[in-house]
Here is the input.
Amino acid sequence: MALAVTDIVLLLGTGLLAGVINVLAGGGSNLTLPALMVLGMPADVANATNRVGVFLQSLVAVRGFRQYGKLASGDLVAILAPMLIGGAVGAASASVLPNWLLKPLLLGAMIAMALVILIRPAVIAPPPGTAALPVGGRPGAVAALFAAGFYGGFVQAGVGFILLAALAGSLRYDLVRANALKMLCTAVFTAVALVVFIARDQIAWVPGLVLAAGNMVGAYVAVKVAIGISQQTLKWFLLVMTVAVSLAALFTGH
Here is the structure.
């Protein structure tokens, strides 16, 4: 697929902004999916192509958080296993079912998260010094992680919020460490999704890699921002992005 200069600028700029948003909160795919569809891609191809950038930005973010010592490693197998299974089931479903099936779920989850941040912020942003809980020590954690993996494998847009609800809200990681784990989880289930989409030949590689270049730069910048800002500031950024994604889910068709 040949790209005009304006297409390249659109994809790089959108990818950079989405990379920042995805690392600090979530919902960047609400920018990148429309950008890909502007190029004439059908929704299923745009959904698949978008995963190239999501995967590569996740690797950049994970490496950055690990360098700063913010990537928790004590419970990774228990966290990643249900994600991996959920991602595989979600990606397989996405290849044959329309994306609108999960739109009400996304909207409901976003509204619920916005209300939680406003009314009971400690649920999603634990106080400093709060000890993280093991997956086995929190009822429903496995189901929440599987659901997040399934949703991410299915449609991707907004999955960061669902992951944060599971990691910060359920397992009590602070927002910086929750974001680091969120990006690792995203890399895992997106890798599974990519295998499915590649097998079905649904990825447009040229625009996907251009978009990914912007995603990766945005992720690099966002890690440095996340390390330097306060938990309180990150919480309010999360609230703003939650509201924005709720509006996008309400008024757009993807």
Q: What stands out?
A: The chain has one domain: 5-251.
